[in-house]
Write a structure and sequence with these properties.
The protein has nine helices and no strands. With about 220 residues, the protein is mainly alpha-helical.
């Protein structure tokens, strides 16, 4: 199920996100049917909004994870290429040997390898040494990115906690006998509070992404 959803988010992202949001909205409207038409509409819009945001975030996280995997695979492939060249393998045969395993998502690495190959061809620099140094640089870049992700892990955890807290607050209110769901979904002040909460959550997540981007890490 998870693999199928990942494949759909990868190959048909817009359709999948829209379908998930619509399904969640219909389910929420059906659940809130006893509270009246206004509550059904509010519940549907709220569920669709959160589901679309969660699905989009999941898609972006999946894309970044696969991009990191492609970069690591490209670094390993460049290292193998350097070893083949150092062993005296014909350059054309060495390049042909790695073409089948080259990750197509690693576009930046492809450009860097092409630049190194061009330098080797134009000025006669040893291709094996250039590829070896490129592989080392790629691994150092990945290690630096991993350290940055580790340093921002607390920011991500805090953002996730703050996103989940409102749901916990509503659940606590229901458990204490306060009909928080009916207030939020079926009354004017409640709907205003709900809209303000969604807006503030969106602003908080945007601020979190800005903090993470400021240290050179892609927000997940």
């Amino acid at each position: 199920m998870r693999t199928t959803l990942s494949a759909l988010l990868t190959h048909r992202p817009r359709t999948t996100v829209a379908a998930m949001a619509a399904t969640a909205g219909l389910a929420a409207a059906w659940t809130a049917e006893s509270l009246g038409p206004l509550a059904m509409i509010t519940a549907a819009l709220t569920a669709a909004t959160y589901t679309a945001a969660a699905a989009t975030a999941a898609r972006l996280t999946l894309q970044r994870s696969r991009l990191r995997e492609a970069r690591r695979a490209a670094a390993d492939t460049v290292a193998y290429l350097a070893a083949d060249l150092a062993a005296g393998t014909d350059p054309n045969r060495a390049v042909a040997a790695i073409e089948a395993d080259w990750p197509h998502r690693a576009e930046t690495t492809t450009r860097r390898l092409a630049a190194a190959w061009k330098v080797a061809a134009e000025i006669g620099a040893p291709a094996a040494e250039l590829c070896r140094r490129l592989a080392e640089q790629l691994r150092e870049d990945e290690q630096a990115a991993a350290r940055s992700r580790a340093q921002t892990a607390s920011i991500r955890a805090t953002a996730a906690l703050l996103t989940a807290l409102p749901v916990g607050g509503v659940a606590l209110g229901q458990a204490l006998g306060v009909d928080a769901v009916a207030f939020l979904l079926a009354t004017g002040p409640g709907i205003a509070c709900l809209a303000a909460a969604i807006t503030l959550q969106a602003a908080g997540l945007a601020w979190t992404r800005a903090l993470i981007a400021s240290v050179g890490v892609e927000a997940a």
